[in-house]
Specification:
mainly alpha; Amino acid/polyamine transporter I; globular
């Protein structure tokens, strides 16, 4: 290695990510990514299992994500490094699992970002049509929103997540306003549950099939882990931000289902692009329509913003550890952000968004996320086995172990089956992609990895080592 290369490496090591975030920013990152799922995407579960099937999916998948939040809060508050679940796998399970988990994260967030940009473009096209203008091509708006949010992320994480907190909170308030606006205390006045709710149209197999899109209520809350290296107090901020985040989403998901199922027939609701906005139009109130239009725009923007943050942190961490080319592991000397990783993911997100296939993009994002959730129970059990309670300091200890891990694994397997029922070809294609990527890592990339440089935690040797 030349002296110039050595100096370059040393310079990159000196310039690290800034520790400037608190619990509010962690909440804004987790809820900001996910809340768009209350405004779109979840309703495809209604098309699979009917309105009641979607409610069952909402609560069952809510249990899945509660387990995810509990497990993540313990492990990430202990492994406080950028990359979240990737950093966990690197320390606990080894290089091949870490590479795959890092790839799951990048693909899930990048495709979710593409779906968010699609929603923004479609909303503007809908607004133009309702205003009497000719049909707008949404693609320029897709490029514009991704480029602007990438620039925001490029300039600094504190500003990025402070903005996310404001627009996420505003989007959540718009759901509360709609709930109050439909007068739930006067059944039949506006809400028509008695006439619209039906039995399960496809039986219990439809309910299971609906689990796939029930994930959309919560997909991305695990992204709070990506902030681990940039929070001021990981042991406090990560568990607090994550657990309050999942509580917020459980409330928002239930309110969303209640309002939409009482205003829209399940046949229409199951294929609507922006169901909450459509529900607001059914009330006949222009003010509610404006609130929900703005709320949907804010939710999609916050989600895309958080996805850029999370995907770039995972890609940056893999570059820093040489799982990907080290060039991606650079930190901007002024803004202290992983700027190269932010920029390289822009064309990938745009290309997915340009397909215009919202349900397909959502499915690929869900599948990548689901693979990551399947890793978590194994990771948690190994973590407790290798470093039992009392051997290392934990910021949070989740209760009832190993029950959450067992429940999470069972729900993941069930959801894989649900995905197979509706999108078997996509599931097979995604599995082939990750197998090929694993072979590439083992046969080509692994020789660049320096295993001794990866273990950044000052832990004792694992039990039985």
């Amino acid at each position: 290695m030349t002296a110039q290369a050595t100096n370059s490496d040393a310079s990159q090591e000196r310039v690290g990510l800034l520790r400037v975030l608190g619990p509010v920013h962690v909440w804004a990152l987790g809820v900001g990514i996910v809340l768009v799922g209350e405004f779109m995407g979840w309703n495809f579960s209604v098309g699979k299992g009917g309105a009641f099937g979607a409610l069952i999916a909402c609560w069952v998948i809510g249990l899945l994500y509660t387990c995810v939040a509990m497990i993540d809060s313990e492990v990430t508050s202990t492994v406080a490094a950028a990359g979240g679940q990737y950093a966990q796998a690197k320390h606990i399970m080894g290089p091949l699992m870490a590479f795959n988990v890092g790839l799951y994260l990048v693909m899930a967030y990048t495709m979710l970002e593409a779906a968010d940009a699609l929603i923004v473009g479609d909303l503007l096209a809908i607004l133009a049509g309702q205003s009497g203008y000719d049909a707008l091509d949404p693609r320029p708006f897709v490029v514009l929103i991704i480029a602007l949010l990438a620039l925001l992320n490029y300039r600094g994480v504190f500003m990025t997540l402070s903005l996310n907190f404001v627009i996420t909170a505003a989007a959540f308030v718009s759901i509360l306003i709609l709930f109050i606006g439909v007068k739930p205390w006067q059944p039949g006045a506006i809400l028509q549950h008695q006439g619209l709710l039906t039995e399960l149209p496809y039986g219990w197999i439809g309910v299971i099939a609906s689990f796939q899109f029930g994930i959309w209520y919560y997909l991305g809350i695990e992204g709070t882990c990506q902030a681990a290296e940039e929070v001021r107090s990981p042991s406090r901020s990560l568990p607090l931000g994550t657990m309050t985040g999942i509580m917020t989403l459980l409330i928002a998901a239930t309110l969303t289902w209640y309002v939409c199922s009482g205003l829209l027939p399940w046949q229409y609701l199951g294929q609507a692009t922006v169901p909450l906005y459509d529900a607001s139009r059914m009330t006949g109130s222009l003010m509610l329509q404006i609130f929900l239009f703005v709320g949907t725009m804010f939710a999609a923007t916050a989600s895309a913003n958080g996805c850029i943050n999370d995907a770039s942190r995972a890609w940056f961490s893999m570059g820093r550890d040489r799982y990907m080319p080290q060039w991606f592991g650079a930190v901007h000397p002024v803004y202290r952000t992983p700027y190269r990783s932010i920029l390289i993911l822009i064309p990938i997100a745009v290309s997915f968004a340009f397909t215009g296939l919202l349900d397909q993009v959502i499915t690929f994002s869900i599948l990548s996320g689901l693979l990551g959730y399947t890793f978590m129970p194994i990771n948690m059990i190994l973590f407790r086995r290798k470093w039992p309670l009392g051997t290392i300091r934990r910021g949070y200890v989740h209760p009832f172990h190993p029950l959450p891990a067992i429940v999470l694994m069972a729900l993941c397997v069930t959801t894989f089956f649900a995905t197979y029922l509706g999108f078997g070809t996509q599931l097979l294609a995604m599995m082939i992609f990750y197998i090929v990527a694993s072979l590439w890592f083992v046969l080509h990339r692994y020789k660049f990895v320096r295993r001794a440089d990866q273990f950044t935690m000052n832990w004792p040797k694992p039990l039985g080592y």
